[in-house]
Design goal:
The complex is a heterotrimer of chains A (308), B (362) and C (355). Chain A has 308 residues and is mainly α. Chain A contains 12 helices and no strands. Chain A has helices at 3-32, 40-58, 61-85, 90-109, 135-139, 143-161, 163-173, 175-180, 185-211, 223-233, 238-261, 268-289. The termini of chain A are far apart. The model of chain A has no long low-confidence stretch (mean pLDDT 89). Chain B has one domain (41-110, 120-326): ABC transporter involved in vitamin B12 uptake, BtuC (Orthogonal Bundle). Chain B has helices spanning 13-37, 42-55, 57-82, 90-107, 122-148, 152-172, 207-224, 226-236, 238-243, 248-275, 286-296, 301-324, 329-351; strands spanning 2-7, 352-357. Chain B has a two-stranded antiparallel ribbon. The model of chain B has no long low-confidence stretch (mean pLDDT 90). Chain C is an alpha/beta fold and 355 residues long. In chain C, the strands form 3 sheets. In chain C, strands 2-1-3-4-5-11 form a 6-stranded parallel sheet, sandwiched between helices. Chain C has a 6-stranded mixed sheet with strand order 7-6-8-9-10-12, with helices on both faces. Classes of the chains: A mainly alpha (308), B mainly alpha (362), C alpha/beta (355). The B-C interface holds B 58, 62, 65-66, 165, 168, 172-173, 180-185, 188, 201, 203, 270, 274-277, 279-285, 316, 319-320, 322-324, 326, 328-329 and C 30, 36, 64-68, 70-73, 75-77, 79-81, 83-84, 94-95, 97-98, 106, 118, 157-160, 188, 337, 340-343, 354-355.
Chain lengths: 308, 362, 355
Amino acid sequence: MNPDILQLVLFTIVTAATPLLIAAIGELVVERAGVLNLGVEGMMIVGAAVGFAAGYASNSILVGALAGMAAGMALSLLFALLVVGLATNQVASGLALTIFGLGVSGLAGAGFVGLKREAASHLFIPGLSDLPFVGKLIFGHDFFVYGGLGLTAAAWWFLTRTRAGLTLRAIGDNHVSAHSLGLPVRRYRVLAILFGGACAGLAGAYLSLAYTPFWTPGMTAGRGWIALALVVFSSWRPWRALAGALLFGGATTLQLHAQAAGGFRVPAQFMSALPYIVTILALIVLSVWDRRGTTAPAALGKPFVPDR
Amino acid sequence: MRIDLEPRGAPSRMLEILAPVAAFAVALLIGGLVVWLLGKSPVRAFQVYFVEPLTQGWSLQEIAVKAAPLALIATGLAFCFRANVWNIGAEGQFIVGGAIGGWIGLLTHGGAGQGVLGSWWILPAMLIAGALAGAAYAMIPALLRVRLGVSEILTSLMLVYVAELWLDYMVRGPWKDPKGFNFPVTVTFDSSATLPLLVEGGRLHAGVLLALVAVAVATVIFARSLFGFEVRLVGAAPRAARFAGFSEKRLAVAVLAISGAAAGLAGIAEVSGQIGQLQTSISPGYGFTAIIVAFLGRLSPPGILVAALVLALTYIGGEGAQIALKLPLDMTKAFQGVLLMCVLAADVFTRYRVRIVTGGRA
Amino acid sequence: MRKLVMAAAALAASLALGATAIAQEKLKVGFIYVGPVGDFGWSYQHDQGRLALEKKFGAKIETSYLENVPENDSERSIEQLARSGHKLIFTTSFGFMEPTLKVAKKFPDVKFEHATGFKQAPNVATYAAKFHEGRYIIGQIAGKMTKTNTVGYIVSFPIPEVIAGINAFMLGAQSVNPNLKVKIVWVNTWFDPGKEADAAKALLAQGADILVQHTDSAAAMQEAEKAGKHAFGQASDMIKFGPKAQYTSIVDDWSAYYIGRVQAALDGTWKSGDVWGGLAQDMVHMAAYTNLPDDVKKMAEETQAAIKSGKLNPFKGPILKQDGTEVVKAGENLADKDILSMNWYVKGVDDKIPQ
């Protein structure tokens, strides 16, 4: 394969991985705090609708991205009120949030169907971005891509290197003893959920502002669910989430490139199923190889009611 | 400001019934307000949405037809969720069950392969094959979990997409109707492969009875049998269960098999009773919606039945609202979300006293 | 008191009767869409047809629609329209075929119109559009305009309509440029903007300088615009998404057909049947030819006029299959039923139909 094509292929893998990564990192932090939010798809699609609407009205991609984040946070606040404030069942609340989000996104985006915006501008550093083979790949993305990488690094640093991160993990592993140690369990969880909402909203805004800069209902097409799966895949570790997002994005786009290059005569359904099969296989390999077993936060999904 | 929850000693029966009713009322107020802001009559909306579907014979049948797969799948899922096994791939098990069961309907189409036996065995064979196929498909995440420690959350979800694409492939390829102008549908089943209707000229089919039977059987299992006790114990107190000699792994396999079989049975009942042929897609998301139904019903079979009926009502009322009031479908979805959240929130009031404390430590 | 109640009841009843009498004069027309009306593609275009009805007939009719109706659970939705007094119901996706027929049997006095199907009944008519006519024209344009002799073609599912589209495109292209190669990517969805954009990127990376799509979103058009390449739109006019990229779009235009059928229903002359309309019936409509040199534009307009007048049939012989066997002899045209059930490629298409 010629290096220019290879660069383009890798470039599309990175862009396909970005929305998955951003949403997955947010959910990863939420789950590390012991909360399972299955509403990622709903928050993402609302982020896409509101992000596009605000970006269109203000003619600013930054305003759009911030509005998408705010919309995701607004939905996650509702979720936080339910599962942290009222200790409702997290699985059901998350699914309810997704249904709600799908409806709200349609209402919010109704006036913006068939409109378009310019895509987010890409980084260009004279000299560097022109470098053969790696130039565009490293120095030629839009700010969402770098944002996603920064987010991954920040999540890793926060979870493993800061006191607050340690506290958050302790809460996720055992909220009862964390509470008896005097740690503010519910405050941490609300903040983590809000962070997850902001990430999901941003991932949605990336779709409608940069990936395919227009709004249509249902445009997230299940990416929120994939992001949720990636969190499990990553064993709740940020860098592994990055690897998982690249693997999944890679499997999705590589099959398209293989078809475009020709000579790849396999049923299209099999090609489309490939990313899911690859993810299962990778997970099996990981679990056989990594005998430490699962590192799921022990309190994940369990409602918490402080006794006083 | 903070919210404090104080456990109630024993939840009162009265509250358990009142809470969902109150939740319903709150959701109606919110929905009514939005409808009113859109310049439509909230009273009329209520009538179209909740009253009319309950006052006509045909729509009552439709509610039952829509609720049946939800109740059947959710009843199976209740076993999983009570045992802390997170099967979110019921949609995939539904599809595989419907497809494999339906395959028998295709093989016997036009009297083929019936010989001296006649056709009486076709429907039972389809139902059994559907249930077995669903259970077998659920064995993939089950074995990966107990043998390799792979999380069933991820594998069961991924297998949904694989099942969807496999069915798509089969219906566009090997199974397509040879006289169908190369369109992606199979032949329509013979009457010997179609679940009988319970009401002449109506839509209520025998699959609805399967759901009722499943709910009844599950109720008895949970209340009376050792297995039901085991499921509850492993879920609620895994350590105690281990001391009691229950194997967590064996149980995980068992509950996944049960929920897979229930989903598969729902799949073939839907294909044979409602659709009447195989299409590239045979589920409008029942396997996912059933997860909500399971939790709304508090993982108890009778509760699940009620939850499935209520959810079915919102779908049918929502269509009425689109037609009579020209309310967009997205309104219905958003309202469904609000309703679910209200019911979940109200549940808390039955178990706790809720106090809002202001000025305290946040 | 009792009398009063009865009088009131009688009054109410007569009022209600009056109301229904008026309502009966108003023809209620219902639509079932497979996607959201906001998809800006297939369902959106059908809804444009519905809006054209409202504009044309005003108070004489009332229209309703149900959107995002899953094909596998559509019988109830169709029945609900029939039960709520809709006398003419359009079901606008292939998968609604069997449910439409079932409901039609129960409601013999309601007229049904099913899009893209092949089964009729006394009260079920079918209609579809010859999109391949437009694809022949864009094949010619692509044949003239490509510099790399490589065209990227993004497709959804291997149904006859899509296969016929690829073949017509290829025949059009070969009529002006025998060296054109088409690279085909099956995305296995009608609508996933992200995936369509990825497919577009993959095809551009493989040297395609023109993109053709048989999927619904404007994602591929935008990718072409971004890359400084060209593309053809599908379903709706996508010029907004590719002001420099778009040569033309093949637009689904159902309004003329819908207006005709509603008029017939109002006049009492509605009959079941099967309509397969193309450029001549304005069911297939070409968006303005843009970004083209004058001679190519002229060629496209002439081809369009020739197809419209019936002088040119995109599937006129001789046509060879991929393996070189002749399916249509010189001087003959491919039969309609063979186009409607097409599952083979013409010579020169370098792909295998996924089966």
